[in-house]
Structures are given as C-alpha cells and as structure tokens.
Amino acid sequence: MTDAPFAPAAAAEKLPVARVLPLLGLPQLDRPFDYLVPRALAEEAVVGCRVRIRFHGQLVNALVLERCATPTHDGKLSYLKDVISSEVVYPPQLRRLVDFLAEYYGATRSNIIRSAIPTRHARAERARKENMPPTWEELGKLATEDPDLSAWGNYVFGESFVDSVRKGSPARAAWQPVPGEQVAAMLAALSVSVARDGGGVLIIVPDARMQARFESAFRELISARQLTLLGAGLGPESRYRRYLDILHGQGRIVVGTRSAAYAPVQILRLAVIVDDGDDNLVDPRAPYVHSREVLVTRSAQEGCALIFASYSRTAEVQLLVSSGWAHNLVAGADALAESMPEMIASTDTSEDPDDVSRGRLPAIAFRRAKAALREELPILVQVPRKGYVPTLSCRSCGAPARCRWCNGPLGIPPSDNPDDPAPPTCRWCGRIDIHHRCHSCGSTKIRPVVVGSERTAEEFGRIFSPFPVVASSGERIVDDIPEGPRVVVATPGAEPYAPEGYGAVMLLDTWAMLGRQDLRAHEEAYAHWSRAVSLARPRERGGAVVIDADAAVPTVADLLAWDAVGAANRELADRTAAALPPAFHVAAVDGTEEGLRNFMESLEVPSGAEILGPVDLPRNARPPAGVEPGTPIQRMLVRCDRRQARAVGAALKAAQVVRATRKDPTPVRVVVDPINFG
Asked: What pTM value is reported for the model?
C-alpha cells in the first residue's frame, strides 16, 4: 500500500482519490482502500468500473466505489495501476444490494459480487463500441395491441393487481395458479405490457427446463432479440455481452436462473420468482444466498412489484403475507372449480369399498388409469425416488441395510434381465453383498424401503401392457410427450409436459416424502404433489388425481382441497410455536469439533440471541469444503428474533475476520437460513 511515494502533482486534478474494494474474498480485507488516480486515468477511472491495484506486492482486481477529494488514510497512497475497463459494471443499485446482503448473511462482499458480475470479456466490449446496439423497441416489431391480460381476472383482485403493476406501484403478491394454468403465458403477457410502457422485468426460474417454457411463451409476443436469457449454459463472452445489454437498457426483459437475480435491469418495475421453494435457487457457494432474498431486497430498495409464482407456498412467503408486506393472489371459487381434476385419496372407502389393489397400485388408481388409457390419454405416475430399489432395510427390525466394508447404504441396481434381478450392491463402494446380515439384530432378510422409478416403470409396463412406458428421472429427463395413451413414470420435478394434460395422475409412496426427518418435509411434499396435480386435465374433461395416502393427514387434506394458503399458514404456525425459521432467524455454523470451538470463542452474539448445539450434521447436508471423508462434522445454531438478523450477521462476520486473521486451518462453514435444517 505504501510502495509508491505520495506525489499529488501526478494525480488527477479533480477527485484525485479513488476508494476501491479489492476482490480478494478475504473477510479481513472486505473494506474500502484509498488509492490515488493518475492523471492519465482520470477520465477512465469512473465509479463502478474495474481497476487493477497493487496490494501487498501483488496485482489484484478491484472495483471503484467512489471518487473523492481527500483520503481517509493518513499515510502515503499508492496509485491505481490500470483501468481494466471503463464500463460501469457495479452501478449504485447493485452496490446497495450487495452491501445489504453481505450484512444480512455475514458475508464477504467479493463472494457475492462473484455471482453478480460476470467475468469481463474484451471482445464483447469491442464489439459493442464498434456497433452500438439498437434500443429495445428497435430489436423487434411490437404488436399494435396490448397482450391479453384477461386471464388475471380469474383471480381475486387480479385485475387491480395488474393495473398497479403497470402503473409502477410496488405491488407484491403470492400467486397460487389453478391446476392447468398457463403460468408462463400469463407472466409473459404481463411482462410485455410492462416493457411496452418503458419498465424493466426480471423473471427468475429454478432450472433450464422452465426457462425454455418461458422462452416459448415470450416468443409468441416479442422477437427473440427482445428477450434476454441468462443461464448456466452460456459461455463467458455471451454472458458478459448480455450483461452489458442489460446495463445499457437493451435487455429490458430478462429471464434467467439463480444468478440472474442480480441482473442490473434499468427501471426495474416487475420482478418474478417461480417456485421459490426449489433448492436450485440457493447458490451452492458461500454465502449461499437465496434468489428469493435477492428479489425481496430489490423490491424494497428499488420499489418494484414482486410476484411469488408457485402452485405451493413456502413458509417464508407466508410470513411476508402475514406481515402485510405481500398479499394473496388466489383464484375465485368458480375458476378453481372449472380447473380442478377429480381429487381422490386411496383410503376413501366410498370410492373403493373392496380395496382390491394391484400390487403397489390402489384399486381406485388402477380403474382411473385404465379409463384414461381407454380414452387414449396419457397417465402420470409420480414416485419419490429414482433408480431401481435405491434403499434396503432389515425385514425384522427395520434398520437400514449397510455395507459391511464401508458402511454405505445397500440398494438393488437395475438389471438387463427383469427375470434375473441384480444382487444387493453398495451405493458407495459398489461391492456386492449377497450374504448381508443386519448390524442390529443379525437377521439375513431384507426388504425395499422405497421402490425407484425404474422398478416402477418395469412393474407398470406389465400391468398396463401393451401401452408404452416412459421413464423420466435423474439425468434422463423427458421434457415433453406426444399425444396418445402411454404410461409416464417420473420423479418429482422430472414430469414431462403433456400438451392436452394427463387423464390420470397417481401419487405413490407418499409416506417416503412425508416421513423424511427434515424441517421442510411436508412443505416439499405438498410442492411436489401440487406440481404433478397441475398437469392433470380438469374433471369435466376426464382428469383425475389419486394420492395413495390417508385423507386425514393435514398435508394430504390441503392438497385435496387445493389449499396452499392453509397449508402454508399451518406450517408457519407450527414453526413459530417451535421457534424455528422463518419465524425466527437462524444461522448454522458447521465444522469439526476443533473448528467450532475456535469459532465460538471469537463469536460475540447480541443480547437475546441464543446458541444451540452442537449436534451432528444432518445426513442430507453437504460437509464443508476441505473436510477429509469420514471426518465427524458437527453443527451449531445461532437463533434470534428476526429484528436482530443484521446484528447476528455482523457478529458472524467479525468472528470470521478473527478466524482469518489467525489463519485458522480448520474448515468452518457459516450458512444463514439453511435449506437443509435437519
């Protein structure tokens, strides 16, 4: 920092000091530093641009936060080494967003900026300077009439909500579409109306499949060049070029996955997040920011409208509705009745008095499926797990079947010959264990805990022969199926789209979803089921849904009534009574016993916050980076009132600074609002 002499004569005449943020990813250096601006770079070193600085003898990248006349540092200042680009890639609204998120998550700003700003690509900048792109209106021919927004009238206060959005009001709604609703088409129509009036639109979806649905819907209303897509499949040059288009206003409508939530859309008037409960919307890298929190913060800071679009509802969104920050947008009784398929629980004895089942398939489900196939309609079977028989357990005591060599879970992989099933095989080390003996009771008998999609497809292929069977799961996801009768077996999230809807939808092995030891088990079960129900035809057109569960289970009863609001209200009330998130703010600190002990010695939580644990890390949670396989990992929780969230974030950040300064080698991870809570 002091390798160059202080020479004011060589600095810029106006605002000679640049306050910059080094992009180092180190918590102890996550603050502004003062540098002198050379006269030769006075015009290029603008606020928000990328620069190169010499920091502790190394050249590193930094962002210019502000230009000022006097420094805050009393010693000698170094000069900026170079301006990488004069493009303002870090505008003021993005800086405010990053500052707030860093404070909330107790994070280093450069880690958030890594996700928010794509890597610079010089060729994209040169191409832009040589050929200035046209305006958004010039990129394609717009229809003379506004898009049809009449479908919003089927929802209570839907028309007034649309009017508020178009007027630029910060209206916020939790929207629960009816089954079979054209969600992408409705949001595309509203977005184009906003863009025609000069506003910006940002839509965040959980995966590329849904992004493709939205792209098709927008292509019916605008040209391909008027829609900016941001996804994981883009190369560095394409991503940076589109980022520049958004910065300069050519990208007025943006549809993207997780990291697109930071896109600096000009005059942002409408933000949408689809299926906010999907795990794909959580950044897998520190500080594990959720796209929902990004858009909620942007709506509050930039005053834009916000829509949470999902067939289900998370407890986090329900908390926003209960507080009055957002409002319900649900269908009226008549619209809901017209769209609903016939909803049946397998335990309904009035529907199935004899209960003559076909294996795993309840009798009522078999009859509805046969009726749909006779009408030349496809049927959908949803099962919770992929694979053949992914999990085995002891038939005598129910203990999980474990490998005798590595203690991994035993399962039965697919076999080329259905008449000759594969032997029990470890899913970790791959060893075959045909002489398994239970570690708990010594029994040699095993049974399947849950049957996977491949085994189900094989079984149903025999039951519904000669109709074709389509399996969609894991890495072999089928996006669409043609018209005609067929049996589709899919895992949650992998259900193919049927152009005319499914004649019957069957939800099997529901206990496997409801019985998971996870805070969000019932919430996620309702979300998976509701997405499958949304693919069914209405009852008037022969659509039926059979859920293999007891109608007395509250989550099942909510699904049968299509009451996402009631399900979310009950979930939020239960968590509030138990002092769990989102009613309370919770941060998880994961690490080895030594690492947690060192971290907690440096942590000074505010008054009123409490520390819980340590406990073992939940099985479905990834261990922190840098941990050797087999190392015991523990978790401690910091819980407080939501009004203390930013104070706890500051305390977590301070503890990480102390740990980094001491160069503590033990791996520790801090996760605010963890998805896998246990």
From this structure: 0.90
